[in-house]
Structures are given as C-alpha cells and as structure tokens.
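Subject: sequence -> structure tokens, single chain

Hey, anyone have a minute? Need the predicted structure for the following. Not urgent.
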Amino acid sequence: MRIEVTRTGGFAGIPRRAVLETSGRPDGPHLESLAREVVSAAPARPAPGVPDGFSYEIAAAGRTVHFADPHLTPAQRELVQAVLSEGA
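Reply:
Had a minute. Here:
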C-alpha cells in the first residue's frame, strides 16, 4: 500500500510531504491497518486547526482525508509520525 502524508502550516509555514510504500516492510501490515482506520474514520468536515498548528492530508487506500492539530487521534498521530520519519 502506498501511504502519502502532506503536512502544511506551522510557525514557518514550510510544507513537508512523504510517501511510504508498505510492501515488503516488517511493519507493513500494521501501517496498512492504521491507514485504513484513519481514512475510514475521518469525519466529512475536519475540525478547524489552531493558529500556527499543522494541517495534514493523508492519501491511502484510494481515499484522501484532512485533519489538523490538535485534533489528531492516536492512530492519525502514529501514522503521520511513521510516514514523515521514514517516507521518502
């Protein structure tokens, strides 16, 4: 599964984008499960963010969802951290 995370906003306003391919990874099934949970549980209208907070876009499993700090669920936070730290 291809998981793409784009983070925008923050104090400096510098966008960051990373893509992670889960096939062949030992933690691939876990990341795929997180991605499915995140995209399926996303509300139709994300809660508004806070000034200088980050906004996120996640594309996975054929869907794209949006959310913003500080309203991340534990699954959203774990997925964002994994993709941004290890993705290309």
